[in-house]
Amino acid sequence: MENVILKSEEKKTRSEIVNFLQEIALKIDTGVVKLVQGEERVELVIPESLTLELKVEEKIKQGNPKKMQLEIELEWYEGKKQESIQLV
Predict the structure, then answer these.
(1) Contact (CB, 8 A) for 17 and 31
(2) Is the pTM of this model over 0.70?
């Protein structure tokens, strides 16, 4: 089951996007990301180990220019510590 807590899609300049990504990267580095959208507030606790997924898509519709899409996704399980394999 998927529950969308916050979603945003808005046009920004490349410079504005760079600033946002730099700011969120600093927040991820601290381990806590706080997001606010209207009355909605979300605080994410980011673990040391998580999964980074990058995806590039091209969408082609006849009669329209090709649309490119870059998705950056971070995934983790709450409360589950990922342990690395150890040799004994």
Answers:
(1) no
(2) yes
